[in-house]
Description:
Blueprint (H helix, E strand, L loop, with lengths): L6 H19 L7 H4 L2 H29 L3 H12 L5 H11 L11 E6 L2 E4 L5 H23 L5 H22 L15 H14 L1 H4 L15 E2 L4 H11 L16 H13 L14 E2 L32
Antiparallel strand pairs: 1-2, 3-4
Amino acid sequence: MSTKTPWWIRVPVLFFLIFGLMEFFIDSGDKPAIIEYPITQFFMLLVLMILIAIELILASIENIMFQTLSEEGKERYLEAKSKKYEWTWAKNLMKNLTKSRSIEREGEIVLDHNYDGIRELDNVLPPWWVYLFYGTIIFSVVYLVRFHVIGDYDQAQEYEQEVAAAQQAIEEYKRTAKDLVDASTVEFLSNESDLAAGEKIFQTNCVACHTQDGGGSIGPNLTDKYWILGGGIKNVFTTISEGGRDGKGMIAWKQSLKPAEIAQVASYVISLGGTTPVNPKEPEGEIWVDPNAPEDTNGTESETPPTEQVSDSTEVAMQ
């Protein structure tokens, strides 16, 4: 019944192993499961009591079996139990790495000269130190050939490469992290889930000025080709985020909506283009032409129709 690991190590190790497994398999969000779900505290207390009970039972069984042994068997058992475990492999490894001599064998390497009774031992250099020294020589030769003979690259080039890679990683993160989206990185969201979320935001905040179908009332018509502050996802995102024209445009929604939500409602507004509202408002602003749009088949840019001035200074621009 003798074990190499004492109970005061076994119990904590098993307890925290079970605790770790519980935290891994229970989805509790940002909080630990033991805090989010108080029932887990009772579970871990029960686990601790079971582990202690198991140790007590094992100790009782060991004591009963010990009493059944003969006197000679008891002596052998106690002697085996009191014997300390030795890390033989670790001692052998240390011996090979240092090549040290035991105190009993120091007479084999003692030198003749001494001073005031102090004698010197002719110990060899530790093999680990010697191998490390040889390694530095090999490294220096490779470094010399690569950077001073061949001229692979220098520190300035390495710095520029790392900065470019970091900048690329930042841009990629900005494109995938919705909460970091801004007017320069926003893209039209065509997923049904994003458009549905944008419609919900629109119906909650925008119908008072633009009507439920985007036809416009106080605010302009969002279904035609005319835009007061420019069309396209980037302009619409900027207008919603920063607000419309000073004194007569809509408020800046960046204080109330997250960037991801502004991107969703902007995408929904873009999706309203070309639809037919019940009572559309007269066009306002001018037809917006995407500067990045390809030219027509004749190689000429499309003509821009005459602009229409905004006459009502009380209207609120959603774009």
